[in-house]
Amino acid sequence: MLQYHIVVEGRVQGVGFRYFVQSEAEKNKLTGWVKNRMDGAVEILAEGPEESLADFVESVQKGNRFSRVRNVTVEEAAATESYKNFAIAY
User: Fold this and answer.
1) Nearest CA-CA partner of 66 in 14, 7, 3, 4
2) All domains of the chain, ordered by start, with CATH?
3) Could you confirm whether 37 is annotated as catalytic?
4) The one catalytic residue among 11, 18, 28, 70
């Protein structure tokens, strides 16, 4: 199990992007969270098998039909805690 810390920049707030991310995470059987940042980006912590995370990141880079993803930063995170589901954090 790996954890990825992901920051997505572009037109990703106010366009249903967090719900899209949650749906894609659940489809890939990942756990973690997604939230809006004050700087207009969206931040994600996703946990799961490497192959599932790779598919998830590919989906996030494309975004949903209302978003315009400009930049995606992915870093492997030190697993500090394990999550039971994938939630939208506020």
Assistant:
1) 14
2) 26-88 (3.30.70.100)
3) no
4) 18
**pTM of the predicted protein model:** 0.95
* Helical residues (DSSP H) of 14-88, grouped into ranges: 17-27, 50-62
Tell me the pLDDT tens digit for each residue of 26-42. 999 999 999 999 999 99
Q: Which residues pair with 19 in a beta bridge?
A: none
Strand-pair partners of 7: 43, 73
Q: Is 5:39 a contact under the CB 8 Å cutoff?
A: no
Confirm whether 36 is a catalytic residue.
yes
Which one is catalytic: 36, 37, 65, 68? 36
pLDDT tens by residue, 44-54: 999 999 999 99
Q: Which tokens sit at 89?
A: 């954090």
